[in-house]
Amino acid sequence: MDATFLAADPATLLVVALALLDSSDRVLMQRRPENRAQGGLWEFPGGKVEPCEGPAAALVREIAEELGISIHESDVTPLTFAASQADGTTRPIVLLLYTCRNWQGEPVPEPGAAIGWYETEALGALAMPPLDVPLAAALHLFVKNP
Ligand SMILES: Nc1nc2c([nH]c(=O)n2[C@@H]2O[C@H](COP(=O)(O)OP(=O)(O)OP(=O)(O)O)[C@@H](O)[C@H]2O)c(=O)[nH]1
């Protein structure tokens, strides 16, 4: 594998993502804008953890940026994670998935993005990044067997 791109920044990318659950156990999913990496795919809202930032703080920040809603660190609960290898063009990723049932505000997608509330059994029909497939399966199990 040509991994020269890793020489510039060898660190694994830490990404946090949120399964925001409503009172009917539906989850909010977000479709990435077409002009971004993995454009058009449905994912859990979230993003990269910045240097010196804790994962829960990163989640609070990303959710405010992407959906315009407020969540509190004390309301997010780790559920599971997924990890990928470097594939020649991207760094290795560790993706941490949290759940949350409390928020303030009305979720609004960023320009170019879309959002929707889905039953967890419907997630398998969405086009998702590969890392999200096991996360969605774990979320479905969690919702059905809390
Ligand atoms: N937010 C999020 N990112 C995911 C998921 N699954 C997945 O493979 N990723 C990948 O993890 C990385 C997160 O990057 P991002 O672009 O969302 O992060 P960000 O909001 O900090 O973006 P920025 O670089 O424009 O500031 C992307 O490579 C994205 O494709 C997911 O469910 N949620």
From TrEMBL:
<keyword id="KW-0515">Mutator protein</keyword>
<keyword id="KW-0479">Metal-binding</keyword>
<dbReference type="InterPro" id="IPR000086">
    <property type="entry name" value="NUDIX_hydrolase_dom"/>
</dbReference>
<dbReference type="GO" id="GO:0046872">
    <property type="term" value="F:metal ion binding"/>
</dbReference>
<dbReference type="InterPro" id="IPR020084">
    <property type="entry name" value="NUDIX_hydrolase_CS"/>
</dbReference>
<dbReference type="InterPro" id="IPR020476">
    <property type="entry name" value="Nudix_hydrolase"/>
</dbReference>
<protein>
    <recommendedName>
        <fullName>8-oxo-dGTP diphosphatase</fullName>
        <ecNumber>3.6.1.55</ecNumber>
    </recommendedName>
</protein>
<dbReference type="InterPro" id="IPR047127">
    <property type="entry name" value="MutT-like"/>
</dbReference>
<dbReference type="GO" id="GO:0035539">
    <property type="term" value="F:8-oxo-7,8-dihydrodeoxyguanosine triphosphate pyrophosphatase activity"/>
</dbReference>
<feature type="domain" description="Nudix hydrolase">
    <location>
        <begin position="10"/>
        <end position="141"/>
    </location>
</feature>
<comment type="similarity">
    <text>Belongs to the Nudix hydrolase family.</text>
</comment>
<dbReference type="GO" id="GO:0008413">
    <property type="term" value="F:8-oxo-7,8-dihydroguanosine triphosphate pyrophosphatase activity"/>
</dbReference>
<dbReference type="GO" id="GO:0006260">
    <property type="term" value="P:DNA replication"/>
</dbReference>
<dbReference type="Pfam" id="PF00293">
    <property type="entry name" value="NUDIX"/>
</dbReference>
<keyword id="KW-0227">DNA damage</keyword>
<dbReference type="GO" id="GO:0006281">
    <property type="term" value="P:DNA repair"/>
</dbReference>
<dbReference type="GO" id="GO:0044716">
    <property type="term" value="F:8-oxo-GDP phosphatase activity"/>
</dbReference>
<keyword id="KW-0235">DNA replication</keyword>
<keyword id="KW-0234">DNA repair</keyword>
<dbReference type="InterPro" id="IPR015797">
    <property type="entry name" value="NUDIX_hydrolase-like_dom_sf"/>
</dbReference>
<keyword id="KW-0460">Magnesium</keyword>
<keyword id="KW-0378">Hydrolase</keyword>
<dbReference type="GO" id="GO:0044715">
    <property type="term" value="F:8-oxo-dGDP phosphatase activity"/>
</dbReference>
